[in-house]
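Researcher: Here's my situation. A collaborator sent me these components and asked whether they could plausibly form a single complex. I don't have experimental data yet, so a predicted model of the whole assembly would be a useful starting point for our discussion.
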Amino acid sequence: MDLKIPSTNQKRLVIIGGGFGGIEIARLLKNHDIQIVLLDKHNYHCFQPLLYQVATGGLEPGSIAYPLRKFMQQIPNGIFRLAEVLSIDSSIQKVHTNIGEITYDYLVIATGSITNFFKFPKEVSSKMMQMKDIPQALNLRSFILENFEEALLTYDESKKQELINIAIVGGGPTGVELAGALGEMKNNILPKDYPEIDFTKMQIHLFESGAELLGQMHPENQAKALKYVKDFGVNVWLNTMVTDYNGDEITIKDGKKIKSETVIWTAGVKGNPIIGLDAKNVLPNGRILVDEFCKIKDTENIYAIGDVACMQTETLPKGHPMVAPVAIQQGALFAKNVIRKEKGKELQKFKYTDKGSMATVGRNKAVMESNGIKMGGFIAWVAWLFVHVMSLVGFRNKITVTLGWLYNYFTYDRTLRLIIRPFKHNKED
Amino acid sequence: MDLKIPSTNQKRLVIIGGGFGGIEIARLLKNHDIQIVLLDKHNYHCFQPLLYQVATGGLEPGSIAYPLRKFMQQIPNGIFRLAEVLSIDSSIQKVHTNIGEITYDYLVIATGSITNFFKFPKEVSSKMMQMKDIPQALNLRSFILENFEEALLTYDESKKQELINIAIVGGGPTGVELAGALGEMKNNILPKDYPEIDFTKMQIHLFESGAELLGQMHPENQAKALKYVKDFGVNVWLNTMVTDYNGDEITIKDGKKIKSETVIWTAGVKGNPIIGLDAKNVLPNGRILVDEFCKIKDTENIYAIGDVACMQTETLPKGHPMVAPVAIQQGALFAKNVIRKEKGKELQKFKYTDKGSMATVGRNKAVMESNGIKMGGFIAWVAWLFVHVMSLVGFRNKITVTLGWLYNYFTYDRTLRLIIRPFKHNKED
């Protein structure tokens, strides 16, 4: 079996991964004299920053997913294959996938990141929920709702407490945004849906091993975010390392135990490298060492961009932050360098333009910083909405998300409280 | 374990099933002196007539599903339980569910219908797709898309034909609407998504054992629908009984075989009765015999409404059609009779008001008939859209569906071509 990619006179660029970086390359090399083959194990691009809204019933998966085949309709020199890459063999310039193999002239690894449970063994990590893709977000949505259904039937008060509590591990943007969304649900929606549950007893815990939330942001914004999250009734545990979880109780470093049937791990990601790379170029955290052209060290024509790439610089010895703008800018750099090469121009080195960062914490509240400007509150929140809507791929998704948010905002509601595929039973099997 | 339903001085009405009929009862008995307990195995009401649009990527599940807990917020005397009913015991007025048991004063069985494969054994029927609930519609969406992905990799022309063909068994409204939607996709969307597949070779087959499509409608409309479906390139097989299916090929009565990896069975439904009813009151097709008050024969306080009920009359010896309006009207009758009983008034008998029927066949084309008026074409299509939007539960769903349709109409697109949960691999395991 092979991938049935026609041979042309053009050089062939194989991109592994249709995330932010991968599609940026395809977009910029559209109509250029190169054959683009995009591989992804899903047939859609997923706008990961809004996964927490899918998990909390604010948006449907279709609002944050965009079909890659529809995207590729605009790229006449592009071909898409739904394929899972198994390994690469750089000596013969080949990618092995679950549907066959393909040769390349250029290869870009844009596989992003996966959850990093660090030293937790499988029997602990498998009891926690993740939120890195759409099925995981839908599982989380089902799981939380299933726990409420179970809680209201439970006579055992301790068990009930376990079922209604939610714990989030990791105080980065994902953890903070999720905590805010859950705090909003606790205040506005859940008491009406489940009048038999006393939601004043519901605890939302947010654990952060560092000394502050949103570690990358300015201390002023960190303080604001902390205040906002607390205002939503979230219990924030700073300087608190989670050391164990048995499915019912979290253990933190000082031995204290906190009950929660739902634990969402947002405390770490790691690169998602490909088998077949020289081991010395893959860091223990799964990121691949690249030079300032995003080329993988010791290779001729293999590149890595985005979360999976680690470009160590003097100011960033651990590489760039694992966020969408880096992936997009590295994708753009790679694409432009391919064009420069065609034209015999000198290649450019990567220079990251940090456009700032932002995080929302429930309705009307967000923090953002950009080019030395810091903002909080309502204006930051509107800016957050705007930036996220504009970053979505596809006109329909932009409209759907905007209208969904308008509806949710004015009704104080999130109507997608649907257990389409029950998860809990499967998990417990 | 029990359902933790508080005991009150009120009589308790237990409704099994939150479909069209079940929620109509709860709506009309809101604020009356009766305790309403609504049981459903899903936590949402599903607008089944639009499931085919979920399957074909035109709508998201959240647009046609409405959370039952949100619905019950409006019913102060109502309680919802996510529960699967296992059986009833009328001698002690008890319902047994997977989460415990509950007693009732009145019981209404509103469990609707399930797919009826008639005499096909499990090894045949399990190879066919169904479309009676949201997970099934999503599985069908995934399955069709997975088959196209596989088709373009296949060198074997015969296998490729199998993979791109789609067969629908049953020429009722569901089959006709699905055939129209698929015909539209074949013409407008699929060739752009899969430029490597020659969709002129794709065959959409619609098998109907009777002499015409839309058996319940006027012959003029039947002829129109047949023309519309054929205009979309669908191969219609009238008077054609499907006798076997092996996963690759359908066999029809005269022994002829038609290749298709996707076979969607819409040729029959049957009542979905409850264990514990007197067997002589349950017909072989699963429908429960009721009198003109919807009361199950030989019972004092157990009722059945909608698809699962069969009220045999002189003009309708097989009972009423299994459609939403019957369920809604029977639910309304039951609710009003409960109120009449309270007030000591005489109970009313059920009288079905047939508001007519309609079916759409892709863009701009539909047939409808109501009160002796027959219409086809664009006006009928607009009427179809209007009636369906207005029948959806919830303002958000009305808006989402309207906008989704407007988008799809003007762009000739359906953007939800997403394989969120691959189905094929699981099916083949």
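Model: Some features of this prediction you could bring to your collaborator: Chain B has two domains: 11-41+83-114+270-342, 122-267+363-428. Chain B has a mean pLDDT of 95.
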